[in-house]
Specification:
The chain is an alpha+beta fold and 454 residues long. The protein has three domains: 145 residues, no CATH class; 148 residues, no CATH class; 68 residues, Homeodomain-like (Arc Repressor Mutant, subunit A). The chain is 49% helix and 7% strand. α5 crosses α7, α8 packs antiparallel against α9 and α9 crosses α12. The longest helix has 41 residues. The two termini are 57 Å apart.
């Protein structure tokens, strides 16, 4: 039951299909059949097992869909992986058998970002151990030069500096801006990483700020993750989130339901009930019949428990989401995060009379579809922050103020955390500088020094 409660919609569909495969007593019900009464498993006799009225089925929605409704399944174009693409390019290089073996091993050591982050000495040790080939760092360095010539540009780089240099070298056409950009990456990379623009302009002898901006744009067009430059030769697919709840608003009234379009409707197979009926009302005579009867009874018990667990999951999810909806009613009407009330798991646990751990499992990896978009339930929970007048506000409101301040800041002189703290305190929010830093990091916003722009 706990495991089923944690599963989001897509995984629940797979779990039900797995149970159908493992338990022959369970079968998927057609959508257009009339709904049957749902009852949980209980201790009953063999005669009661064969009564169809006591065999539960589980339906996740009403049959109010037209037969013309179609579910479109997206297709994914097959394509080569990055490693396969690199190995294919190596085939066109004039390499000896030994060099090709070393090159394949190096390609296999490239990570998902396109970097070779391991020391060549360590790679040489692995090659010696796994392939029984004695090599050294110098030989691997020569092979790595060949890999650096492959596409996408920057592949196999050992750090960000080498990655950007390789990409810049691969560009056709030599301009003054690219020459300056190369000089920055090779001689003044530390100043570039720390965004000490004034020092860079002085050391490059550039007085015109517009010219320096053009030099910096040459570097900014490069990718810090060379693997991202490879599109796989096929259509890139966007990962879609399947919401677990569907929330609609009509005339100010909410309509909440579970998204169960693809969830199979299951029941106990009538074929197995007929099998028991044919065995003289469930009275087994031979050892084989007794064993068969025991097997079927066990499977029916398991099937009824599983159906009950699915129903209980449905009830628990709806019960929890209904209380969340009631608690955050103002937010679901406006869609403005500043309207979110401070809410923790304990608040909903007290309303539903459920354990906090149960609420945690319900909201984990679950989404609700609203007219404002698809929302992760976890994002609705936040800690309370005290204000000067003794009230409480959600941490979402604090984060929104921080985001607005940083978006409106002068990028030449970004606002430091201490100044952000003073701004919030002036607005009546009692907050420490370390809390400002924590919320800024949660928003994925770097420190002021790294936000500096020309």
């Amino acid at each position: 039951m706990i495991k089923l409660l944690e599963l989001p919609t897509l995984q629940l569909e797979q779990r039900i299909k797995q149970e159908i495969e493992e338990n022959p007593v369970l079968e998927e019900e057609e959508r257009n059949e009339e709904e049957e009464n749902e009852e949980g498993p209980k201790e009953i006799s063999v005669e009661e097992y064969i009564k169809e009225d006591d065999t539960p089925s589980y339906k996740t929605k009403a049959n109010n869909y037209s037969k013309d409704d179609k579910q479109l399944t997206p297709t994914i174009s097959g394509s080569k992986s990055l490693h396969e693409y690199l190995l294919e390019q190596l085939g066109y290089k004039n390499l000896s058998e030994r060099e090709m073996t070393l090159a394949r091993f190096l390609v296999g050591s490239i990570d998902d970002d396109g970097y070779l982050r391991r020391d060549l000495d360590a790679v040489a040790d692995d090659i010696s151990f796994m392939l029984s080939i004695e090599t050294d760092e110098d030989e691997l360095e020569q092979v790595l030069y060949v890999i650096h010539e492959l596409e996408p540009a920057g592949i196999g780089a050992r750090d960000l500096q080498e990655c950007l240099v390789l990409q810049l070298e691969s560009l056709s056409g030599e301009t003054r801006q690219r020459q300056m950009a190369m000089k920055i990456l090779t001689h003044y990379f530390d100043e570039f990483a720390k965004k000490h623009f004034e020092k860079l302009m002085a050391r490059l002898g550039i007085e015109d700020e517009e010219e320096f901006r053009e030099v910096m744009e040459e570097i900014m067009h490069l990718s810090p993750r060379p693997a991202n430059l490879y599109d796989g030769g096929g259509t890139q697919t966007i990962p879609y989130v399947t919401p677990d709840f569907l929330l609609d608003v009509q005339d100010g009234e909410f309509t909440l339901k579970l998204n169960s379009w693809n969830i199979p409707e299951i029941r106990v197979s009538k074929r197995y009930l007929d099998m028991l009926r044919s065995m003289q009302g469930g009275k087994a005579t031979t050892e084989t019949e007794k064993a068969t009867l025991q097997f079927v009874k066990g499977k029916i018990d398991s099937a009824k428990w599983f159906i009950q667990a699915i129903q209980q999951r449905h009830d628990t999810l709806m019960r929890t989401m209904t209380e969340i909806l009631d608690y955050q009613r103002e937010y679901f009407h406006s869609g403005d995060k500043s309207d979110l009330r401070p809410m923790i798991l304990k608040d909903i646990a007290e309303r539903t009379k459920l354990d906090v751990s149960t609420i945690s499992r319900v909201v984990n990896s679950k989404y609700v579809q609203t007219r404002w978009g698809v929302i992760l339930l976890k994002e609705l929970f936040s800690e309370a922050m005290a204000t000067e007048d003794g009230g409480e506000v959600s941490s979402h409101e604090i984060k929104q103020i921080l985001r607005d301040c940083i978006e409106a800041e002068n990028k030449r002189h970004p606002i430091k955390d201490e100044t952000l703290m003073e701004i919030l305190n002036a607005k009546g929010y009692r907050i420490a500088r370390r809390t400002v830093a924590k919320y800024r990091e949660m928003l994925g916003i770097p420190v002021a020094r790294l936000r500096k722009e020309l």
